[in-house]
Write a structure and sequence with these properties.
The structure holds 2 protein chains of 2 kinds. By secondary structure, chain A is an alpha+beta fold. Chain A has helices at residues 2-6, 27-33, 52-59, 78-83, 119-125, 158-170, 190-194, 235-246, 285-298, and strands at 12-19, 37-45, 64-71, 88-95, 104-107, 112-118, 130-131, 141-147, 174-183, 200-203, 206-218, 268-283, 307-314, 335-342, 346-353. In chain A, helix 2 packs antiparallel against helix 9 (285-298) and helix 3 packs antiparallel against helix 9. In chain B, helix 1 links the parallel strand 1 (5-10) and strand 2 (31-39). Chains A and B meet through loops of A and helix 6 and helix 7 of B.
Chain lengths: 361, 270
Amino acid sequence: MWETLKKCPRHLLVCEKSSFKSTNSRHSIHVQQHYFNYRVSVLIPECSALPQKIDSIIKDLGSYHLVKDVPLHKLVCEEFITTFLSKGSFYALSYSTRIDQDNAAALLPTGKLIISVDKDTYEELGLEGQSSRYSHKTPMRYVISMDLTASSFAPGGNRYKRVMWALAEKKPLKFDFLMAWNPSDDRRANLISYFSAYQLKEYQPSVAIKTLKDIECPVLQSSDLRATSAESCDAQEFFDWQGVVFNEIESENDSGNFLSTYCCPDPNIVVDQATLCTITGFILPEKIHLLLESLCHYFTEPKLTPWAVLAVHGFADSPVTWREDEHGFHKGGENLYSFVVFRNHDYWLQMAVGANDGCPP
Amino acid sequence: MAVFMDLSIQSVEKKKLESIIETAAHLGYSAVAVNHVANFEKETKKEIAKPLCHEELFEGALPIVQGTTKPVKIVTRLTIVASDPSHCTEMRTTSQRTKLYDVVSVFPKTEKLFHTACLNLDVDLICINVTEKQPFYFKRAAVNAAISRGIYFELVYTPAIRDSTMRRYTISNALALMQSCKGKNIIISSGAEKPLELRGPYDIANLGLLFGLSEAGAKAAVSTNCRAVILHGATRKTAFGVIYTMPRDEQEDKREATAPASKRSRTEAV
């Protein structure tokens, strides 16, 4: 029995390497398909201030809105679909709902509405869905997904009437939503006017920029993920080190420190200064893609540092991780990825998920 | 998964109870059960007290569960401590007082009562002793019979926080129970008398691992199984869990009384 006690809940880390110059590089697809992002961290060693291009992108991240008590049928009705879904990408995620206990909803930019409900709500709602993959003995959670832009969901059709009846009359579901809209043409004000009947507040992502002094940075070789020679660190050690730096944990391994006995992996070099920028909020994948591209362009001019890191965390209570893969919360709801961009335009992509999650694509 | 619940908060005086429930809501429990203990072990004829009305607590403004926008739910629970089934007739369905409680549980002190509770008694929970060495072994037949009837076994964790000897007994009794029931139908609850004795639901799920439950089973012991217990208690007020009665609104009665009783029209088809 003691053997089982030593194990911790299962978690998965997928590391892959590729190059931005390669034609079949899937970096943009990975970024685009991770729809709900909570935190983005950028670490650039040997740099005292953020490069001007990255700084300008960060200043122009766009705002997001928190709308309270929105009935779910408002996101399904014909007016909403024609006003927003056909004219850009609309992201909505239910706020203050825990994915392992309450009902949660998410609207993906592809036009799919995902509702994750508990057993009682599913039985009262009357819509067809599938039981969650992460049920213990009896299914206690069900996932209902519907494609709002599909032809079978045309307003006036049977499916549409059934969904509207279920969401408006049978079991009205209300959530607080975090919403962001990326219109394909320039009409930004519509979201505020459409939801004017509800309590709406606009937020900007919060940005914190810090310059770290005298930190130890691991030595990496872009071609060598597993560090077969002793001259570089392997991807897993580097991933752990990223966590230490982004959370500002002490890694000196002081004898008097009771909180952390972490040491930077060998081989490492001491860097005079590094810039750490943390952006927190409801951040769109399009903006993260711009950040990644500008980080890649950072290396077009010769720089001291051989690598820079962009790490993105997803929401712990989001119903989906990448694409429509179901996300569960066992004891931690982590779903994150990080790009390590090298000087020679190679990159490492590390994707990590927790216990109740499928393997990242 | 269902919401997290703590099914055993000791019924102490009002202010203390309010602070315990507030702490529970802050820790993430969406429902708590206030436990009234009736000790029939020594005295045979004792009145079971009426349950505390939870509208009196917090003057109606229940604390919000951390992480959501909903208030905490409070249910009432009765625990009967006894050593002989003949001691108390209160555990029958038709008893007046037990009907007022949402969840009824029994704390058997002898093997005979444990056996009777598993097979015959109309209870929702059987409490397992964690403060002393179990005087009897858990018979697999009785435990399986209880599981098939939908009865759950409860383990309390606050004695383990208070004293190290009790910690040993808690773990050894829990492991003995696991061997008989294979991790099914177990709930873990606090039995807290002070707010500081409560622990967060994920921590209790980790404690369940120590008791021998699986990862998913330990989390279910604090969520899904607790929900099942409350539903089992609710079915006691129904017929076979299918039909239930609701008190009719008094105003509707008055309205019906004022309308004149009209004769059925002869033109209606028979």
